[in-house]
Specification:
Largest sheet: 7 strands, mixed
Strand order of the largest sheet: 6-5-4-7-8-10-9
Strand content: 15-25%
Structural class: alpha/beta
Low-confidence stretches: 1-13
Shape: globular
Distance between the termini: 32 Å
Number of helices: 12
Number of strands: 10
């Protein structure tokens, strides 16, 4: 893509309506809003596979609940998570909320399934959708909402995380993708910790600048910690391949729930070399 094409893909308009551009190489197709960050990437030989490591880590919920019945996703992007869940979780009813209509317009290029009785993409504001959703209506909520400027404050506020908890079922799970930029990231993990209490795990991603936060209830964490090996063995081959880079981190984060005597863990600030 030429620089002229790139410039034309970003008109001076409202942030949530910027047009993404698509680039391809021999192996993959990517969605970007600028030349620095890849928003989504799809393998051409396997469009359903999760190609970016952070998307694989977001599937950590499979260890806690391998068969969620209802899923709400905020942020479509190239549809990586939506496609994977649609293909490998056939029991799930999936709703995806995407604020940018131009992102939805390129769904076919990224092989996002058409709307059906168990899958739909809604053009709307994720925070507004969450605030109006019925209480206890989703087993799983996945937040991967970014715009050209980064993470909108409406999707990282205390009020938003409270709304997420309200919309989750009794044993529901929240999965959030955060930008791993300190000290902001630790502050946002702290907000989730304030809303959900102790059962919060934060998974560091070796590459990509992301941190994945998973939150649920103490009972859900305790049950998973007590049967981790059995749950891993029961996963499908596809799920095991997806989680192979993050399994050790998930098990480590669940260690406090392996014993009745558990010490609360506050979010810790990571030390980074600059």
């Amino acid at each position: 893509m030429s620089m002229t094409d790139f410039e034309n893909s970003q008109p001076f308009t409202e942030t949530n309506a910027l047009k993404p551009f698509i680039s391809t190489d021999d192996d993959s197709m990517s969605m970007q809003f600028d030349l620095k960050l890849i928003q989504s990437r799809m393998r051409l030989d396997d469009p359903i596979a999760l190609d970016l490591q952070y998307t694989r880590a977001m599937m950590a919920f499979l260890m806690l609940n391998p068969e969620p019945r209802s899923i709400l996703m905020v942020g479509l992007g190239g549809g990586s998570l939506a496609k994977y869940c649609h293909a490998h979780l056939p029991q799930a009813d999936i709703t995806v909320v995407e604020i940018n209509p131009h992102v939805i317009e390129v769904r076919d290029a990224f092989k996002v399934p058409p709307d059906s009785d168990r899958f739909r993409v809604v053009c709307g504001d994720g925070a507004d959708f969450m605030a109006k959703a019925p209480e206890g209506s989703y087993d799983l909520i996945m937040i991967d909402g970014f715009n050209y400027e980064g993470q909108p404050e409406t999707l990282v506020s205390i009020e938003f995380y409270k709304a997420c908890r309200n919309v989750l079922a009794e044993s529901g799970i929240l999965v959030v993708n955060l930008q791993d930029i300190e000290p902001e990231c630790t502050r946002l993990v702290g907000r989730i910790w304030q809303v959900f209490g102790e059962p919060v795990m934060a998974l560091d991603i070796e590459c990509g600048g992301n941190r994945i936060v998973v939150a649920s209830t103490e009972e859900v964490f305790r049950e998973c910690a007590g049967s981790f090996g059995r749950r891993w063995a029961a996963l499908s081959v596809e799920h095991k391949e997806t989680l192979r880079f993050s399994t050790a981190s998930i098990e480590y984060e669940l260690e406090p729930w392996q014993s009745p005597k558990k010490i609360a863990k506050a979010p810790k600030l990571k030390k980074r070399s600059r």
